[in-house]
Amino acid sequence: MNCIQVDDDELSRRVIEDYASKIDFIRLTGSFPNAVDALNFLKNSLEPVNLIFLDIEMPEMSGIDFLEATSQEPQVIIISSKEKYALKAFDYSVTDYLLKPITFPRFTKAVSKAYDKFNQQRSPYDDDKEIFIKKNNMLIRVKYSDILWIEALENYIVINTVNERFTIHLTMKSIENQLSSVRFKRIHRSFIVNVGKIESIEDNATVIRTPEGRKIIPIGKSYRDKLLSEINLINK
To answer: Has this prediction a pTM greater than 0.70?
Structure first.
């Protein structure tokens, strides 16, 4: 999940940055001392923001003002030093309300709740789902159903689709967080596959059917048991 935080207190921002860095399923893509900068980021960002850590009492624009101003609908976890705003905050269907000082276990509980809700909201096998990939000066629409596999290439990733390959300056962790965790599985430190494109699993490899034939992709030892536990396996 891509996250941002909005808080005018520098110490609080550092705490959240530290906590977020310890959790694999969230990625902090922005940290803002005021709501105005956060709003501008949301309007201009090419990447979706799935979760916002939001303070209430801030100069110029409060957290409540921010909730009323944004047209996007990411989940929100309120982080405040005062309980009195809780009732008002939940009028905006926030996911959780954390009181400062925040402990790491309480933070983990809140983001786990957000992550569960995030996965429930995604339709894992909706062929109409899509991403936009930047290529030169264009944004190319790519359907989930057209993605075959994704592989790491030094500081880049290569998204292999039915029609073409896209090389992007992005990490595997970043693209993994953006895609459906049900449809796309990390099976190796260097590979993510579209499970709907797996033709067979042979020993320690998956076989993907491509327009040119078959692509054999290795399964890492640390990923094999998780993959087998998550696919619809019928034992003979």
So the answer is: no
